[in-house]
Design a protein that fits this description.
By secondary structure, the protein is of the alpha/beta class. The chain contains 14 helices and 23 strands. Strands 1, 2, 3, 4, 5, 6, 17 and 18 form an 8-stranded mixed β-sheet that branches. Strands 8-15-9-10-11 form a 5-stranded parallel β-sheet. Strand 13 and strand 14 form a beta hairpin. The chain is globular, with a radius of gyration of 24 Å. It starts with 6 loop residues before the first strand and ends with a helix. The protein binds flavin-adenine dinucleotide and nicotinamide-adenine-dinucleotide. The site of nicotinamide-adenine-dinucleotide (NAD) has 27 residues, from helix 7, strand 10, strand 12 and strand 19. It catalyses: N(6)-[(R)-dihydrolipoyl]-L-lysyl-[protein] + NAD(+) = N(6)-[(R)-lipoyl]-L-lysyl-[protein] + NADH + H(+). This is Dihydrolipoyl dehydrogenase. It is an enzyme of class 1 (oxidoreductase).
């Protein structure tokens, strides 16, 4: 390290993005500090991935054990299944505490200085931190911003944190409303509908766009709706938005047509989860001190090396990763971007490859994908002059899925007709979140269905669903 600076690297925000960057920086020999104003571990550990997956694990088990028809197929009978809401909530809380402790200890063990307070850029290679004991000035050769995101609450919706709440409160599972409205059918809406429906709540799902799960590939969303929504106690409004939500008992929700803005209905429910997306936490970061303007959605503009941009030009020694740059709001994308930033800081040119970053919704069964949807691939094809082909295979033709008596599912491969290059893979079915990684590696290596169709998969495994899809593409 140059003697001129306090640190080689200072990171603002100790979420998964900042944590991933810090671990990699230490492995590259950089003297590193990380600044955190609130909870170590950020959204994912405290209010996101971790508690939500704990709730999904417990509620998924309840659903499975209460599915008498499925158990009977396997030759099993149960006389009754009870659960304790508080104990499920405690499971989530205990997991958060454990992972938060592990994450903090991993930084301490590696001698990353943890500074508690609000960090701000105060010029090139300079940061100030507002701590309990006053303001502190720090210099660093490089600065990574990883301030993350917060829930977006549309205008007209009033959140009281008890009867109308976002996922920040939802993950605490403080009560189980008899009837809960969920606004938004994206990741959070879907995962919470899985939890609430398994635990016996009646649900009304409200989606502003003209189809449920608008972010997912159409074929996958259609089948997922048939399995995850239709047979469950879930009523849906599509093309409708909640223009007013008033907390209380009951919660009053005024619905309107998303296109015409005309009044549609008033709902009176016990609770309302607002799951309408997230916005970057990028205010008061001192970016004006280095001439950086946020983009029109308040994300920090970056290039694929994670360098912060000002009017399209790289700002030296300043990097931004994770939810705050809006490239891909996923935990593993944040830490992968942290590694990219550190590699570039160390003088090794590296760029993020978003095409090969997988995503999953941890419903029962799960949804996962990597790369492009069929619609996005066709759009790219029409610009670049190539045809797109697709192939599908089904869990109902897979021996392992049949043995588990869980044969609802599909895998869809989107590829270039001319070269066979895989452009996207979409899976709905049991263990989809694990199965997707083979496809992710294939896309990272720009492999074709021709080579993939010759790989050998163990029998009988769910991975043969993908094997079958690749073979169908070439056969
Ligand atoms: C309910 C829910 C479930 C989710 N499930 C998944 C999942 O299963 N898989 C997945 O990949 N993703 C999931 N996500 C998304 C995931 O949580 C985020 O993509 C991830 O947390 C982003 O990491 P980050 O480091 O960019 O930001 P964050 O995790 O938001 O961390 C940012 C940190 O920076 C701190 N900070 C901000 N500004 C300052 C400042 N000026 N000074 C000091 N500190 C500051 C904040 O306090 C915070 O701790 C989920 C999100 C939610 C809400
Ligand atoms: N398993 C995971 O990886 C996971 C889980 C949860 C959250 N996340 C991350 O958190 C982010 C936020 O999740 P999310 O589900 O809130 O956002 P989302 O963007 O996935 O879905 C929001 C949905 O709400 C709809 N909507 C917006 N305003 C509305 C209104 N007024 N009325 C009705 N519908 C409306 C949108 O059309 C959209 O379908 C996601 O982008 C995702 O990256 C990931």
């Amino acid at each position: 390290m140059s003697q001129e600076f306090d640190y080689d690297l200072v990171i603002i925000g100790a979420g998964v993005g900042g944590h991933g960057a810090a671990l990699h920086a230490v492995s590259c020999g950089l003297k590193t500090a990380i600044i955190e104003a609130a909870d170590m571990g950020g959204t994912c550990v405290n209010r996101g991935c971790i508690p939500s997956k704990a709730l999904l694990a417990a509620s998924g088990r309840v659903r499975e054990l209460r599915d008498a028809h499925h158990l009977k197929t396997l030759g099993i009978q149960l006389s009754g299944v009870e659960f304790d809401r508080q104990a499920i909530s405690n499971h989530a809380k205990n997991l958060v505490d454990k992972i938060q402790g592990d994450l903090t200890n991993s930084l301490k063990r590696l001698k990353v200085d943890i500074i508690r307070g609000w960090g701000k850029v105060a010029g090139i290679q300079k940061v100030t931190v507002i701590t309990d004991s006053g303001e502190k000035s720090i210099t660093a050769k490089d600065i990574i911003l990883s301030p993350g995101s917060v829930p977006f609450v549309p205008p007209g919706i009033e959140v009281d944190g008890k009867t109308v709440f976002t996922s920040d409160q939802g993950v605490k599972l403080e009560w189980l409303p008899d009837w809960v409205a969920i606004i938004g059918s994206g990741y959070i809406g879907l995962e919470f509908s899985d939890v609430y429906s398994a635990l016996g709540c009646e649900i009304t799902m409200i989606e502003a766009l003209d189809q449920l799960m608008p972010g997912f590939d159409r074929d996958i969303a259609k089948l997922a709706e048939r399995v995850l929504i239709t047979p469950r106690d879930i009523e849906t409004y599509v093309g409708i938005y909640a223009r007013k939500v008033i907390p209380g008992s009951p919660v009053v929700i005024e619905l309107a047509d998303f296109k015409t803005k005309e009044f549609v209905d008033v709902l009176e429910v016990d609770a309302c989860l607002v799951a309408t997306g997230r916005i970057p936490a990028t205010q008061n970061l001192g970016l004006e001190s280095v001439g950086v303007e946020l983009d029109r959605r308040n994300f920090i503009p970056v290039n694929d090396s994670m360098s912060v941009l000002s009017a399209g030009e790289v700002v030296p020694h300043l990097w931004a990763i994770g939810d705050a740059n809006g490239k891909m709001m996923l935990a593993h994308a944040a830490s992968a971007q942290g590694i990219v930033a550190v590699e570039n800081i160390c003088g090794r040119r590296k760029e993020a490859d978003y095409q090969s970053v997988p995503a999953a919704a941890f419903t029962h069964p799960e949804i996962s994908y990597v790369g492009m949807t069929e619609a996005a691939a066709k759009e790219k094809g029409s610009v670049e002059g190539f045809e797109v082909a697709t192939t599908r295979s089904y869990f109902k033709g897979n021996s392992k899925a049949l043995a588990e008596a869980e044969s609802d599912g599909i895998a869809k491969v989107v590829y270039r007709q001319d070269t066979g290059e895989v452009l996207g893979v979409h899976i709905f079915g049991m263990h989809a979140s694990d199965l997707i990684h083979e496809a992710s590696a294939a896309i990272a290596n720009r492999q074709t269905v021709y080579t993939l169709a010759h790989l050998v998969h163990a029998h009988p495994t769910l991975s043969e669903v993908l094997d079958e899809a690749y073979k169908r593409a070439v056969g």
